[in-house]
């Protein structure tokens, strides 16, 4: 087993936005700090900027700038290339990626490098065509944009990371750490990865996927007429609501209601109801010490077994594991009254 060299792309080496430093620091921490008692030699880390190496730093609004010794040409020859992030404008506004980045990524891949993205760095790999026909992920807030912009990519928003052999992608923020530890596990074995995780005071494996972090509450909708009936339903999740109940409340036929909810939320009325029940269960697990049986009742999911079934299927972890991942800090709530007025 060999560690090899890791080249990390710094897409805005002059004036790096402060909020992008987390993704950048993850590979620097995992691969840049020697661990001679775990593996010697450790990884060789190089930061490769998209501008001119060693260029004068410009002042950044938060008083921070980064200068790199290496440029994009230095991606070729690295064993692993990591794109931690791309500028927000490239994701939100469709702005072009930094000049030369796409060609450099293609060249590195053609030379045999293992290609890795963290968070929205997947947009760079996708633009280079390296994700075509592959399963990939990104932060769940960006996966819809990724899928729309790159339809040949099989986007999966439910996982923390995807290992597709020579191309790997991760979800946002801390999921990048999960993927980097996975790379260490692949390269140097489970013992080294587990010991490194202990030193970083993080779990070597996290249960489930990023589905447990996705906001399942009401999505933004342009159909203002549906707002009152959706809110009415959310206030009665502990009751056995049906599509017919919602249609009567909205004074629509079930077929028309189905069409309008599908257009407004991107899902069916039954799936929307299930998402709301799961969101209620998540909130109760996070904010109360109520037993699972009571949470199943208050969320309208019924028995504890039914709650566990849907939680495992939709969220990816059991209710107990979810509760442990979100320790309660709010005041204890022993009961959540339902609103049963018409």
TrEMBL record:
The organism's place on the tree of life at top rank: Bacteria
Record Pfam families = DJ-1_PfpI, HTH_18
Q: Which UniProt keywords apply?
A: DNA-binding, Transcription, Transcription regulation
In terms of SMART domains, this protein maps to: HTH_ARAC
Q: Which GO terms describe its molecular function?
A: DNA-binding transcription factor activity; sequence-specific DNA binding
Which residue range or ranges hold the HTH araC/xylS-type domain? 227-325
Instruction: Mark out the compositionally biased spans (Basic and acidic residues).
Output: 331-342
| Disordered: annotated span | 323-342
Which InterPro entries does the record match to this protein?
Class_I_gatase-like (IPR029062), DJ-1/PfpI (IPR002818), Homeodomain-like_sf (IPR009057), HTH_AraC (IPR018060), HTH_AraC-typ_CS (IPR018062), INH-QAR (IPR052158)
Tell me which CDD domains the record gives: GATase1_AraC_1
Give the residue range of the signal peptide.
none
Q: Which PANTHER family match?
A: ARAC-FAMILY TRANSCRIPTIONAL REGULATOR, HTH-TYPE TRANSCRIPTIONAL REGULATOR RV1931C
Q: What is this protein called?
A: AraC family transcriptional regulator
